[in-house]
Structures are given as C-alpha cells and as structure tokens.
Amino acid sequence: MTETWLSRFVADEEQFRTALWRTTPAVLRPERPPVDVLPAAELDRLLDHGLLKVPYLGLVQRDAHLPAERFCPPRVVLGEVVGGYADGAAVRSLIRDERATLLLRYVDQWHEGVRALARGLAAEIGRNVEAFYFLTPPGTQGRPVHRDDADVFVVQISGAKRWWVHGGPADGNWVPEREDGDPGEVLLETVLQPGEVLYVPRGFAHRARAEEGAPSAHLSLTIREAATANLYTVAQSLLADSCELPGRPLDDAALTEAAAALIAHAGSLLAELTPADLVAVTRQVMLQPAA
C-alpha cells in the first residue's frame, strides 16, 4: 500500500475520517510516525547555529512569555547592533533553571523536513497546516487550559507528556483563548509516549504536563479550518476582482451608475455561487503561502 502523509499520523485513515475527524479526541498509533522529521537530537544544532530568531523562537512559563532580551543578546553585524537572535546557552539555562518551555513557531516555514510534512498533509486534506515544536521540562505545564482554532496532531518525539482533553465549544460563537471557566468533563486523559500521536479536534479545551524524569519534546501540526471572517474576505475579493468600475466616478449620475453596475454584478455572481463553492474557494485561498 502506498504511504500517504495522513498515514504518518493515523493507523486507520478511513476510521479517522469517518469516526474521529472534528468530533472525537483520540490517541493514534501509526505504523511510521514522523518522529524522524525533527528529532530531539537536532534541537541543539538549531539552537547553536546562530540564525534562529524571534518570533520563530520563544520561551514561555504557563501563559507568560519571557522577554526576548533574556535569551537573545545583541550582536554586531556590519557595524550595526542587531537583536532577536537566540543564544543556545541562554535558552538552555532558562529551560533548566527557570523551568521555561521552549516554543518553536511556524517550523514549516524554515525547516525543510517539517515543511515537506506540513505541505504534504495540507495537500491531502485540503486545509492549511502549520507546525510548532515544544520542549517542556520534566513535571511542568507549558500552557494553561486553552482552546485552539485548529485541529491538532500532537506527535510525541521524546519523553512523555500527560494530556487532558475536555469537550468542544457549545456553539460557533467561541474564540480560541485560555479557558478561565469550566472546560467541562475530561473526555480523554492519557500519557503520550514517543511515537504516539494525539488528535485534538478544533476548539476542544486541553492542557498538558510533562512527566517526571525527562524533558518532553513534541511536534504539533495545526490544521486550520475556514472561519466566518475568511468567508467574508473571499466573498468580498470575488466581488472586487471580477467587476471593472471606474475608481472615482466624476458626478452623481456616474456614481449612481457605478453603484447599479456593482449591485447587478453582485447579484449575478451570488446567484451562481453556491455555499459549497464559497467554502471550497476559501479553503483553497488559505492553502496558498502568504506573499
């Protein structure tokens, strides 16, 4: 059987698509999980090569971000003082001594292997995919209970991490943020081991804590779905891009004529545009790399 990108995260693709996708958190045990894409041993090289900089790198303690100045000392380049570049020794010290969690953001934008993994998965499922890497000291919790505006595949790379996943939001009027109220009953509690994958549906509240004994490293693939704001943006773009009108009508009659032409054009376009078409176009737009 030909290996797919999705098969690196799930053992049974059909069962995932029909029984879990968007509805049910689960621990998945694929035959060949992508633990080799960014192994823990590569982290030291990334920290020490001197070009990793904020905002691609950050250090957090629960919901507080450490100031970049604490791990990004200034350096001189072409006679100018520049900042924001991570110092590996300073990063390791804050992880060790202050129990900070290391967060690597949008790894798909700057790491070749992770980029291939994210783009391959995105092409198969028709959604935008981004990647984040977390290194959490033993016995610590990197973030409070929160909800993400994405479905998430958590790939445990090394160490172990205990996860608690609560239910999803009650309706569509929710925002992705820290959950300060009651997140509801725990639907899934598990200790994720290396090679295992946790699936958290979009909006399901969750938190995690590294187990004692060793740091926990995991790679999160976030699968972005369209929101109402994306539909608005694409609909407005379709109307604007496909109707040629004068930019500055010269008088009231010309302005009224332009308004009539725009209304007629919008009516014609919307009469042909189905809801499914708008969703499909919006997802396709979200798949395109930012200019």
UniProtKB/TrEMBL annotation:
Name one molecular function that GO assigns to this entry.
Answer: histone H3K4 demethylase activity
Q: Which cofactor does it need?
A: Fe(2+)
- Report the residue ranges that make up the JmjC domain in this protein: 98-242
User: Which keywords does UniProt give here?
Assistant: Iron, Metal-binding
Q: Which Pfam families match?
A: JmjC_2
Q: Which InterPro entries match?
A: JmjC_dom, NO66-like
Keyword Iron among UniProt keywords? yes
The answer to whether UniProt assigns keyword Nucleotide-binding to this entry is no
Q: What is this protein called?
A: JmjC domain-containing protein
- Native species of this protein? Kitasatospora cheerisanensis KCTC 2395
